[in-house]
Write a structure and sequence with these properties.
7 helices; 6-stranded mixed β-sheet; alpha/beta; 3-stranded mixed β-sheet; cell cycle; 255 residues
Length: 255
């Protein structure tokens, strides 16, 4: 009987697809573990919040308005949402949020400029912003070159319009104005009276002030104190010297 040939058993070849699958599963598991460890560490949290440019709002007020909390997830802070939330604060005109990994958030605040001041009913001094909003004056002090608004109703739309106009005029053109009061007429519902530190009395309208303010400064720089009218036409009348009035009175008395 011839020798029977026993077939050679084939060695099992490793299944490459199965090996790759195991590698990918292990790699994914490793990434998941690292992610869990990362998000539980302080590196993924907000560790510092810095505000810059705020004078009328405190840090605590800004933190509350922005919704940012130290210890919250750094990647969960949306700059656009924080900026929108801060714009709801009446003194803030613009807010910019800059995130710096790891954990630092810088917020730059741009407030509406102060255009005037007003005494509250309690006697406290308040700053009036170009937006028309009124805020309490804190330890930042006051700008002495800003006018005082008196006899204005808080609900008067002309008051808000005046603040907007004052915010559009360069500071050097309004620095001599010390007081502004409402003085409406049928022809000019937005008529106002201004009093200057150089002792001029000015009659104008809110809607005309921006265009007329240069004439005001020209008269102040070249003429003696008097009454300046800046409505449909501009005019200037000097005050009568008190010395001549007293002289006339004395002369009449002596007679």
């Amino acid at each position: 009987m011839p020798n029977a040939q026993i077939p050679v058993l084939k060695e099992d070849k490793p299944k490459r697809k199965a090996s790759k699958r195991i590698i990918w599963i292990l790699l994914l598991l490793f990434i998941v573990i690292l992610s869990v460890l990362f998000f539980r560490s302080t590196m993924s949290q907000v560790t510092e919040v810095h505000f810059k440019g705020n004078t009328f709002t405190t840090r605590d007020e800004l933190l509350k308005a922005s919704g940012i909390q130290v210890g919250s997830q750094f990647f969960g802070v949306s700059p656009s949402k924080v900026e929108s939330s801060l714009l709801k604060v009446k003194s803030i005109q613009k807010a910019t949020v800059d995130k710096q990994f790891p954990g630092v958030i810088n917020v730059t605040i741009e407030e509406y400029p102060t255009v005037a001041y007003e005494l509250a009913a309690e006697g406290d001094l308040q700053a009036i912003l170009s937006s028309g909003a009124t805020v309490s004056v804190n330890n930042t002090g006051i700008a002495v070159e800003k006018p005082i608004l008196t006899k204005w109703n808080a609900s008067d739309p002309n008051k808000a319009a005046l603040c907007k106009v004052l915010g559009q005029i360069p500071n050097e053109l309004t620095s001599d104005i010390s007081e502004i009061i409402p003085s409406p007429t049928e022809s000019f519902p937005d008529r106002i009276k201004l009093y200057t530190r150089s002792r001029f009395e000015v009659i104008t309208a809110i809607s005309l002030l921006k265009d007329k303010v240069e004439y005001l400064n020209q008269v102040i720089e070249t003429e003696e104190p008097g009454i300046i009218t800046m409505l449909e036409a501009d005019s200037y009348v000097p005050f009568e010297p008190s010395g001549e009035e007293n002289g006339d009175q004395n002369a009449t008395t002596h007679e």
